[in-house]
Fold this protein.
Amino acid sequence: MKTFFKLLVIAVVFAGSPCFAQSAHPTQESLNKLFELTSVRGMIPKLQEQMDGMMNGMMQSLLSNKAVTPEQQKALDAFRAKVMKIQAEEVNWETLQPKLSEIYQNALTQEDVDGIIAFYQTPAGQSYVKKMPQIMQQTMLMMQSSMLPLMKKIELAGVELKQDLQRIDQK
């Protein structure tokens, strides 16, 4: 019985030590500070613009440069207005902030957030925040230009797979 109590005391002591302590989730207050410093809220209109541009590209792709009648244009305009309304309802700070907070709280500790906040309060951190939209825009353009050749290669691989499967079926 004495051995049991000794083990229990040792377990309690070690459970309270830093190597076994679980790091605290960041507070909502600290996340709000981080979101403010990184201008996350200000990125939402840019995200909406990008989504609008993607939708325009999709609509043009669907039309394949075909002539559009006034009636078809009216339907396209109504669709675009409907999508923009849905987007405004779904992609806004009030909707995204709780979801972002949950993601950050699950991924980061309070210590992480404190360190990140400290960085973003420096001139280098603020410079990074100011330049991030340009970096993201150029990254998106690079990804879009990379996707076309990638999609063509994937399409070719799909054709080859289809031929392979047909050969197998013929055996």
Residues 20-170 form one domain.
